[in-house]
Amino acid sequence: MSHIQVRDDQGVRIISFNRPDKRNALDLNMYKQLTEYLIEGEADNDIRAFMLHGEDNCFTSGNDVADFLKNSDLGPNHPAVRFLFCLLELKKPLVAAVSGAAVGIGTTVLLHCDLVYADNSAKFQLPFVNLALVPEAGASLLLPELVGYQKAAELLLLGESFDANTAHRLNIINDVIAQEELLAYAFNQAKKLANQPPQALQITRQLMRPHKNRVQHQMHQELEQFGARLKSDEAKARFQAFLKK
């Protein structure tokens, strides 16, 4: 069974993480599928918006560490790298519904979304430094711009988890929604976007993101440092301790 599920409904491509035994941790095949579904949706005129969510009341616990360590060469064809730059190049709007864990990429992916909703079970975390790594997905640029340097430093340098109300207060998410209503609410918002005039919507998104080249440059810098850190003794020790848990 595929760990990434997709269905199209009323102009919205709904993509879900479905690997409950691993708390929806993303392995390289999942990254590959995510990228394929996004690229296909971009080319399909009947698809006008995307929606991301996780099954089993969990968004994603981040990267599958063991799988990532076996494939640590972060060249342009690495599935995770392709996914990150695909996110940056999306022309159609992206909505996320977050329940439960949103760790690492589970939080940084939200910085590329247009609308994000979470329920009270959501727990966000950016534990890159905790694992002797550096941020990815442009988070080292996007997060300080969004929440201010001091708060971004707290989230990235300490790597502690924070709840949905904190994420809302920091403008990382749009609103906190009751758990039983979350998916329906997020889908309804995505459907509203899908019903907007598509060209005007896409051009407006582009105008609101004038710093795309800066983000792209930052992502390249992050990946260069991330790849080097993966091979460091400091990171190897942290990963060994993590995997023993």
Descriptive key words:
245 residues, 6-stranded mixed beta sheet, 3-stranded mixed beta sheet, alpha/beta, single chain
Strand content: 15-25%
> Looking at the structure, what is the overall shape?
globular
Q: What string gives the helices and strands in order?
A: EEHEHHEEHEEHHEHEHHHH
The biggest beta sheet, please? 6 strands, mixed
Strands, count:
9
User: What is the average per-residue confidence, as pLDDT, rounded to a whole number?
Assistant: 95
Query: At the third CATH level, what is the topology name?
Result: 2-enoyl-CoA Hydratase, Chain A, domain 1
Judged by helices, strands and strand pairing, the structural class is alpha/beta
Helical fraction: 40-55%
Unreliable spans are: none
Q: Enumerate how many helices there are, as a single number.
A: 11
CATH architecture: Alpha-Beta Complex
Strand order of the largest sheet: 1-2-3-4-6-9
End-to-end Cα distance: 27 Å
- What Rg is obtained from the alpha carbons, in whole angstroms? 17 Å
CATH homologous superfamily descriptor:
2-enoyl-CoA Hydratase, Chain A, domain 1
CATH class membership: Alpha Beta
**Domains counted in the coordinates: how many?**
1
Subcellular location: Peroxisome
Keywords: Isomerase, Lyase, Peroxisome
GO molecular function, one term: enoyl-CoA hydratase activity
Enzyme class: lyase
